Amino acid sequence: MTATTSQPLIAEFEPPSPLEESLPTFYIGHHESKRPLPVTEFVLRQAQDAGYDMLTSPITSPHFHSRVLTLVSSYIVEVSRLETSDDLNSTSSIPPAPIIPPLTPFDTPMTPSDTLSQLIGYCSPWIDLCSSDPLISNISRQVLNIEIAYASFCGVGNIIVPGPRNYSSGSTDNNGIIQYARAIQEALTIGSYIQMAIHVPMYGHDEVKDMTGDLQPFARDYQSSGKSKESKDLDLFETWDAWNFIRSPSEELSSNFES
């Protein structure tokens, strides 16, 4: 009969080291700026099988975009006609900015479902909340508020809002940022349970990209400042100053920096 000696067992689970506890967790998402079809559960499962944790989805469709452009174009034509007519004695005859009608089933790819918790809503990049043209800034705020309200209704938990199109719009250097910050604060009151991320570059401005149906070219020249934007030197901290100004009134914003 052989005797056996028992050896001390090594603990199967060791407590994590302080270094391991401090390591950040990364979530990988896939963003397609021109996603043609709604994100179904099958598409989401395919993305997860490929290693993605989440997908982005536009909140509104090209049909809604077309409706907004038609509304803006019709208003500008009407205002131009009134301004050139002989019986126009004052600007009081110019109609107020148009109101965007409510969304229809053709205006959005989103519907309330269980998959929305794994989607990030992406607001329309063709709006310009910093525009010095009151018409364009008004329409842009309406679009943002409509998208935030509908995404909140559907149960979307996270939304990405495109950052400011410029940092010096209007008669003073930060008028555009003031307009943008006010629009974000208004959107936060509409979607109080939504986490918003402001999509801005690390420094400078995003490269100018031609977007079909961009509202910026519709803007009329309302700038009273004669300073040339092209001659302005690049400020490495301009993006941070703008972001800090936007987030200062509220602690509910998160930043989404793009390198």
TrEMBL record:
<dbReference type="GO" id="GO:0006355">
    <property type="term" value="P:regulation of DNA-templated transcription"/>
</dbReference>
<feature type="domain" description="PRMT5 TIM barrel">
    <location>
        <begin position="51"/>
        <end position="250"/>
    </location>
</feature>
<dbReference type="GO" id="GO:0005634">
    <property type="term" value="C:nucleus"/>
</dbReference>
<keyword id="KW-0808">Transferase</keyword>
<keyword id="KW-0489">Methyltransferase</keyword>
<dbReference type="InterPro" id="IPR035247">
    <property type="entry name" value="PRMT5_TIM"/>
</dbReference>
<dbReference type="GO" id="GO:0005829">
    <property type="term" value="C:cytosol"/>
</dbReference>
<dbReference type="InterPro" id="IPR025799">
    <property type="entry name" value="Arg_MeTrfase"/>
</dbReference>
<dbReference type="GO" id="GO:0016274">
    <property type="term" value="F:protein-arginine N-methyltransferase activity"/>
</dbReference>
<dbReference type="GO" id="GO:0032259">
    <property type="term" value="P:methylation"/>
</dbReference>
<keyword id="KW-0949">S-adenosyl-L-methionine</keyword>
<dbReference type="Pfam" id="PF17285">
    <property type="entry name" value="PRMT5_TIM"/>
</dbReference>
<protein>
    <submittedName>
        <fullName>Protein arginine N-methyltransferase skb1</fullName>
    </submittedName>
</protein>
